[in-house]
Amino acid sequence: MCYCKCFPCYRSFGYKHVLQNHERTHTGEKPFECPECHKRFTRDHHLKTHMRLHTGERPYRCDHCDRQFVQVANLRRHLRVHTGERPYNCEHCNAKFSDSNQLKAHILIHTNEKPFSCDR
Predict the structure, then answer these.
(1) Considering only CA atoms, which of 91, 61, 95 is closest in space to residue 79?
(2) DSSP string of 19-75?
(3) Contact 89, 95 (CB under 8 A)
(4) Per-residue pLDDT tens digits for 30-52
(5) Global pTM exceeds 0.70
């Protein structure tokens, strides 16, 4: 263990490799490249997860309906379909959502933003 500090932002880290990973957020370096499509990543585990798109591996399975997912975060979000959990609340009204993207789309109703334009 070491006391490592990032000088652009002064965050501290207990391990040098964690600092090195963090420093890539400042440098933009992406040393891990997909051999299939050449997309690049800042972390090796991001490449490993990405590779599942090419191999078709879906290691995370829903016990309720047998759907399978590439990432555990996608499985967790999907499980809300079965549990009915709606952790994302609108601060303007009583609406609740199971997905943060649903909430973001809903908030546009209150802010009157129209992010998409129609040519017709």
Answers:
(1) 61
(2) HHHHHHHHH----EE-TTT--EESSHHHHHHHHHHHH----EE-TTT--EESSHHHH
(3) yes
(4) 999 999 999 999 999 999 999 99
(5) no
